[in-house]
Amino acid sequence: MKNIGLTLLFVVSLATAANAQVGIEMGLNMANLAIKENGSTLKTKFKPGFGIGIPADLAVAPHVYFEPGLFYEMTGAKIADVYTGKYRINTITVPLNIEIKTGEKCGNRFFIGIGPYIGYNVGGSVTNDGDSNYNATSTTIKFDNAAGDLKSIEFGAGLNFGFQLKIRLYARAHYQIGLTDLNATSDANNTLKSSAFGITVGYLFGRCDPYARVAGFGTGAGDHWRGMSKSKYSRKPRHMRNRAPGY
């Protein structure tokens, strides 16, 4: 929990220092696991869950944003093989996305993003529904345990796209795939990797200033990047500008 708190503090501090917008985002998360046991691939299905988090929006160039975040997600999978059951895993995810946004900063705009993420599994369980021959069971997952359950840290990559309204509400669809084998005692015949997709809605807090400076563009807070060349800038007074720059 201490590491989670420090990560949250880092995200908020980074956003504040960069005069960025910080938001709240939540929605449906559909998770799955690719599981191989003793050389056989288990049949699995997507398991629905809830996700909530705090993204930050930092402009780095016209239409280009760096978007770190901190999310809590319910992940895992449904097992539908020789036995039925569920993997339930609670994961703290830190995405580090680069977002491309159309339109103007304070208007309606589409966006698409891609980037890596770091996942920290903080708890979970494995259940077996049982049948006429076996009783139902539920086992708590132990992470980074010598006896061998699952690893707590994973790395992966994600893709997202969505639409943002000028009132700072937005909707996003995302897909992510884990690149780490989470099986603590993995070998060629025993592996476990995660994946998920979801739909979320969010709201960005903070000032929406279409004339805010982006580092490296223009020579002052009131400059307007015209996109003509790196050495040419417009220093038009505000009252002469008929539209906002596309940040």
Query: What amount of the residues lies in strands?
Result: over 45%
Count of discrete alpha- or pi-helical segments spanning 4 or more residues? 1
Helical content band: under 10%
End-to-end C-alpha gap: 36 Å
Shape: elongated
Strand order in space, largest sheet: 1-4-5-6-7-9-10-11
Give the structural class.
mainly beta
CATH fold type of the largest domain: Porin
| Number of separate domains | 2
Low-confidence stretches: 215-235
Report mean pLDDT, rounded to a whole number: 82
Using the coordinates above, name the CATH class of the largest domain.
Answer: Mainly Beta
Brief descriptors of the model:
247 residues; mainly beta; Porin; 2 domains; 8-stranded antiparallel β-barrel; 1 helix; 11 strands; 6% helix
Account of the protein in words:
The protein is mainly beta and about 250 residues long. It has two domains: about 1-205, Porin, CATH 2.40.160.20; about 210-245, no CATH class. Helices cover about 5% and strands about 55% of the residues. The protein is built from one helix and eleven strands. It has one helix at about 1-15; strands at about 20-35, 40, 45, 45-60, 65-80, 85-100, 110-130, 135-140, 155-165, 170-180, 190-205. The protein is elongated. Residues about 215-235 have low confidence and may be disordered.
What is the gist of this entry?
The protein is mainly β.
Layout: helices, strands, pairs:
Blueprint: H1 2-17, E1 21-37, E2 40-41, E3 44-45, E4 47-61, E5 64-80, E6 84-101, E7 109-128, E8 137-140, E9 153-164, E10 169-178, E11 191-205
Antiparallel strand pairs: 1-2, 1-4, 1-11, 3-5, 4-5, 5-6, 6-7, 7-8, 7-9, 9-10, 10-11
